[in-house]
Design a protein that fits this description.
Distance between the termini: 56 Å
Helix content: over 70%
Number of strands: 0
Order of helices and strands: HHHHHHHHH
Length: about 230
């Protein structure tokens, strides 16, 4: 326990890296999910097919394989492009590779989350808004967006919880996150069980606090939807 306390500042630094990775990955996943849902809902045959290919690839490829492909394949691609312009080799950081991989993976799941939430909105509401002559942006802001958020929040919360746990896999490509630093510290102190138990508790704390935030958001938007009626 004394050694765990001695390494606590280092582990706290790794925890911050893990949180940062999860947040930026979620931002990328949200953007990809919104684009994917828009392609499925309002796009043509080509965009629908592209989104279908995207979601099929993500369902069929393990997270670890995707991270390794983006980390090593991404570096090779960057170096090929830079070499074509006469520049020297560049390296893709583990943080960037992890963010791209996790964002890419969970963007596919959010595609279905957003699409399902949009399809839940009664069509009669948008038709009534159009009949009243509401501007499209006003209709989105006043009618579609509040309900879309309310219907998407439960699925969005689930994706976030799984995404946070997936950040642990990025340690295999050398990211100095909570898991990577705890692994190194556990080997040095010869107490891997103690350090990984601490990691377990930290992840439980992340997910517990996240769930409280999402529970509050769901209650808030449920009340907004109730008052709107």
């Amino acid at each position: 326990m004394e050694q765990l306390i001695a390494y606590a500042p280092l582990l706290a630094k790794g925890a911050l890296v893990t949180i940062a990775l999860a947040i930026v990955s979620l931002a990328l996943a949200t953007a990809l999910g919104a684009l994917g849902a828009a392609g499925k809902i309002g796009g043509g045959r080509i965009s629908n097919a592209l989104v279908q290919i995207y979601t099929t690839i993500v369902r069929g490829v393990p997270d670890l394989v995707m991270i390794l492909l983006i980390y090593f394949g991404g570096q090779r691609l960057v170096n090929v492009v830079m070499g074509a312009f006469g520049s020297g080799p560049l390296s893709v950081s583990p943080f960037l590779a992890g963010m791209l991989a996790i964002g890419f993976i969970y963007g596919a799941y959010l595609t279905e989350t957003f699409r399902g939430a949009y399809m839940t909105i009664p069509r009669g509401q948008t038709e009534a808004a159009q009949a009243l002559g509401l501007h499209s942006w006003t209709m989105v802001r006043k009618i579609i967006a509040p309900q879309l958020i309310r219907f998407a929040l439960p699925g969005y919360s689930n994706v976030w919880q799984v995404l946070v746990k997936s950040t642990a896999v990025v340690s295999v490509i050398g990211l100095q996150d909570l898991v990577g630093l705890a692994n190194d510290a556990g080997k040095t102190a010869r107490q891997p069980f103690v350090f990984f138990t601490a990691v377990l508790l930290v992840y439980l704390l992340f997910t517990f606090l996240s769930q409280q935030v999402f529970n509050w958001l769901e209650r808030r938007h449920a009340l907004v939807g109730h008052h709107a009626r």
